[in-house]
Each structure stands twice: as C-alpha cells, then as structure tokens.
Amino acid sequence: MLHGTMCVNQYGHLEIGGCDTVELANQFGTPLYVYDVELIRKRARSFVGAFQKAGMPGQVAYASKAFSSLAILQVINEEGLALDVVSGGELYTAMMAGFPPEKIHFHGNNKSPAEIEMALDYRVGCFVVDNFYELDILDQLCREKNVKVNILLRVTPGIEAHTHDYILTGQEDSKFGFDLNSGQAKHALDTALSSSFNVLGIHCHIGSQIFETTGFLLAIDKLFTHITQWKEEFQYEPTVVNVGGGFGIRYTETDAPLEPEDYVSAILTEVKKQAAENHITLPEVWIEPGRSLVGDAGTTLYSIGSTKEVIGVRKYVAVDGGMSDNIRPALYQAKYEALVANKAIHSDKEVVSIAGKACESGDMLIWNIPLAKTQPGDILAVFCTGAYGYSMASNYNRLPRPAVVFVENGQATLVVERESYQDIIKLDRPLYEVVKK
Q1: How many other CB atoms sit within 10 Å of the CB of residue 131?
Q2: Which of 235, 262, 294 is the last residue of a domain?
Q3: Catalytic residue flag (residue 359)
Q4: Which residues are annotated as a binding site for substrate?
Q5: Domain at 105, CATH number
Q6: Does the keyword Ion transport apply (predicted)?
Q7: Which of 119, 195, 367, 369 has its CA 20 to 30 A from that of 87?
Q8: Of residues 7, 19, 142, 359, which has the active-site annotation?
C-alpha cells in the first residue's frame, strides 16, 4: 500500500516526502491533494531512460489532462519532457508556466478556430489533427499567417485495449481520429500532404489504465501495414510514430501494471522490427504518459466527520470531500486503498464504507475497506488520486475545490490555493442588489 517516499514516522503517522500528513492537514486544511514530487521525477526519468537505453530518439510528452497546474508543468519541464495539451486553457497554463512552446503538442477532437489561432500565435511544436474540419481550418489559418506547421494525424487503429469501456479510444467506433480501416486516414494523409503542413507522422491512443503490452504491439503492427501502403502510394514515410499513453498504475492490490521501462522497451522493439521488415526508415517514437507520471504520486487527505451504522449491513464513515474532488468512483466505479493517517500502525480495525459529503447517494469513495477504528477529526489518506482528481474537480453543492501541496525532501509547498466561498461566486451576477444585514 505504501509507495514512493511514503513511510510511517515515529508518531505512527503517515509521512510523504518527509512531511507528516497530519501536520499537512492541520496547516493547509482538508480536503488536500498531496503530491510526492520525488516519485513524479522518478517516473519521468524511467520513461526517458528507457529511450536512452534503447539508443532510439523519441519524445516523452506529459498528458497534462491528468493534472494541470503551473507547478506541475514546471516540474515536467525540469525533467526534460514534452507536453500534451487538449484545450486553450491547458495551453494558456503551459505558457504561463514558462513551458517551451516548441515542446507542446496540441491535441483535441474539436479545437475551435480561436484555440487553433492561439496555438499558432504561441508557435506550438505540433498539432495532432483529429478530423477534416480541423484540417481545413488549420490550413486556412496557416495560409493567412503564411506559416507552415508540424502535424501528426490521429488515427483509430481498431484495437480495443483491455480496460474500462468508458476509456476505450482506439476502437473504430470512437469520437477520436481518422479511421484506418475505412480508408479515411489515407484520404486525410493525401489532403494533408497537399496542404500547408509538415506532416511528421501519425498518432494513435488505444485506451487507458493498460497493464500489458499486447494492445500496443497490435496497434503498431496495424500502423505499419498502412505506412507501407502509403509509402507505395504517396512516397511518404513518417518521421514520427506516436503510440499515445494509457500505461496503467496500481490503485489496489488487484492491479499489476508493468514498470515504465517495460512498456517503452516493448514498444521500441516492435517499432524497430516493423520498420526493418517493411523497409521503412526508422521513425522517432513518441509516447504520452499522464496518469502513470502523477497518478500514484497523489494522495488526498480528508477529515473524518459523521458515521452511520446500518445494523447488519454496513457502517458509513463520512469525509469532508468526495465526488466534488474525486469523481472517478462515481464515473468509472474506480477503486482505491486508504488508511487513517494519524493511526497508520493501528491493528484494531473495522470494515467501513467511505462516504462523501455531496448530496448524492452515489457519492461513495470506497466500499467495504478495513480501517483503524475512526472518530471525528481523524485524517483519512486515500492513495493514488494524483490523476483526474483535481483536474476533474467541481463545485457541485458549491463545495470549494481543495488546495494542492507538493512535498519533497521534507519541504511542503502550496502550489494551488484552496478556493474560498468568495471564489465560488466571483463570476455570478445578481439580478438586483442585495441589502446586506
């Protein structure tokens, strides 16, 4: 259960990054996202190191949808990674963080003309083009601005990863990308080659939370079948093949992900093999880890409040957050592990279910987990919440979004402030002035 820099300190408290989580909760309040920065750096270096070990050029681009903030993007830049953004907001955050625009890849299945123009003005390194609508707009804007940009064509290879139905993105019936099997991708390539673009290559993404390499290898095989045909028909060879991300992490003991270098090694070996067998010049390989960089580095701290025991059924323990700061259990039926941070070594346990405070019966974070016996004011630590927690947080029930703290080498740094009630209403406009009493 404990991972990264986690340990139990002399007081029997959970410690992360050399910081006592109980003290963090007291200092910064709860709910609180705590990120183990050393673990993020370790994951980043594992991905980069796998390319170096293989002696192959490539890029590791952080998929910032997993968690985007000024501070995390600065850490990612320090580690030498590229960046994947999917909206004007994510792009703006990257620019305000000082991220080099030439290392930014702009994704998205419905980029607006304003977003595309924004990315052109910032001179991002690459557009990952998703559809013909985008091809047309991008070509028009490039001609107006007299610029030529790098693009990848996103394709759907028809490969279904072994993952949750809601996060399958590589199969044919998907909102993303040009379909390979119908000839749509071929038509897109023909169009792109005659437009204002430098067509670097192709991109695919087969899903998320993937624990094996088979899906990636099948996708690469499918891609090279078409690359070989395109070489014959268009005399075109890609200089980049981007196989996306989706590398899994351990949420509970039933999860068994591979190490970052294992995924990368298998991918690079297959690309080398396919390029050699099909007489294709070896392309650069790009990947896009998101969850696997920050997911298990994040822990959410909650304060325990009320309890309710349904005799003969279960005991509910409520915390001061829930689906407003972690929608994944309600959306994906995601499972998590947890412990009582101020009673990390207690052996006297009971089975409880962790309820959130939102006014929804479905606001349940964890069902039937053995925990040290709790009382109001105890601190619950829920593990592996670093991906799609803060980034999908909401103000449902007008709950303020939590603060975010980075911990590293015994130092805690507040990197996102907690929202206040004033923040929640700052964009509201009343119908009439209220007389304050």
Answers
A1: 19
A2: 294
A3: yes
A4: 291, 328, 332, 360, 388
A5: 3.20.20.10
A6: no
A7: 195
A8: 359
